[in-house]
Design goal:
Helix content: 25-40%
Shape: globular
CATH architecture of the largest domain: 3-Layer(aba) Sandwich
Strand order of the largest sheet: 1-9-8-6-7
Strand content: 5-15%
Number of helices: 9
Largest sheet: 5 strands, parallel
CATH class of the largest domain: Alpha Beta
Structural class: alpha/beta
Number of strands: 9
Order of helices and strands: EHEHEHEHEHEHEHEHEH
Radius of gyration: 21 Å
Distance between the termini: 36 Å
Number of domains: 2
Length: 317
């Protein structure tokens, strides 16, 4: 008798056209603002998300995209593309999880909003930090909007995904799983945020229980394996309380989504194998962020110019 490994697929999200209000009359002259959307990588889910945003919003205002974790080259290209359109303001919308993340500290520094760069974002098993970065060359007022954790959209996406599962939720223990960020304080903050979301989803969707777990990538094979084994032990204990369903909170395919199939294959748990993107709720979120940012003033405090030969963190594939 083999192990049972459930792969469930459910419909999710709202109709894209219904979620977007009618377009305003076309404007002429210099655009009041342009939007730079920051995305993590170039996995297929990011490509589709880019397509959805472009299709829905480019008739409203200029939109550019930058990929990677605070990738200076891509961010600079996006800024220059919007400035070439002669926009009067650039609104940066980070399609990331947490405003407290190291990547956001780096983004704020590069945009001239934060005073200091991140000290640990680009440090892995090897030191990729290199010389201090120079800020981006920007000649336009900039507004940086909050990440997903400050918007109801993340909860809505997770709740829609949970409600779409074809399981008896009253008997299931829901687990939200995410890759553990670094440093430890950031991981602690993200674990608390996910645990709060898990409790809200349990209440709304009627699960028997719900909790959050983080899996650490680790700086060595030994650290990675220890994190995986600790997670598997926790899931085995949870199964004593009844069936377990795993819901990944990763936005797109990455190292963790690849690992989860292997980690969960012998644990007798349910797992839908999906990422949170693409999702039609993202387009209205970008639009709402842009509309709010259009009413805000320039956030830049540090405006020195210059580009950098800094070795950027590799894009997630």
């Amino acid at each position: 008798m083999g192990f049972q490994f459930l792969i469930l697929f459910g419909a999710f999200g709202l109709n894209l056209q219904a979620a977007i209000p009618p377009l305003p009359p076309p404007s002429f002259g210099e655009p009041a603002f342009g939007v730079l959307v920051l995305e993590e990588g170039d996995a297929p889910q990011w490509a589709e998300t880019t397509r959805q945003i472009s299709t829905a919003l480019t008739a409203r205002f200029p939109v550019a995209f930058a990929y990677g974790l605070a990738d200076t080259d891509d961010m600079q290209r996006g800024i220059k593309a919007l400035e070439a359109r002669r926009v009067k303001k650039i609104i940066v919308v980070p399609l990331f999880y947490s405003s407290s993340a190291n990547v956001m500290k780096e983004v704020r520094y590069l945009l001239g909003i934060g005073k200091n760069p991140s000290q640990s974002l680009f440090k892995t098993g090897q030191d990729l930090a290199g010389p201090p970065q120079k800020r981006l060359d920007i000649h336009t007022p900039v507004v940086l909007m909050p990440t997903l954790d400050f918007s109801p959209v993340l909860k809505k996406i997770l709740l829609n995904r949970a409600l779409s599962l074809r399981i008896d939720r009253k008997k299931e223990n829901l687990v939200l799983v995410s890759e553990s960020p670094n440093p430890p304080q950031e991981a602690k903050d993200w674990k608390e945020r996910l645990s709060l979301l898990a409790g809200q989803i349990q209440k709304r969707a009627g699960f028997k229980s719900a909790q959050a777990f983080l899996i650490n990538e680790g700086n060595s094979q030994d650290e990675t394996e220890k994190s995986e084994e600790a997670f598997k032990d926790d899931i085995r204990k949870l199964r004593l309380n009844g069936p377990v369903f795993i819901l990944s909170t990763e936005l797109a395919d990455d190292l963790l989504t690849q690992r989860l199939h292997r980690i969960l294959s012998d644990l007798l748990v349910g797992y839908n194998g999906k990422t949170l993107l693409p999702n039609s709720l993202i387009v209205p979120w970008v639009l709402k962020s842009a509309e709010k940012g259009a009413k805000m003033g320039d956030m830049r405090k540090y405006k020195e110019k210059g580009s950098s030969g800094f070795m950027n963190f590799p894009k997630i594939r």
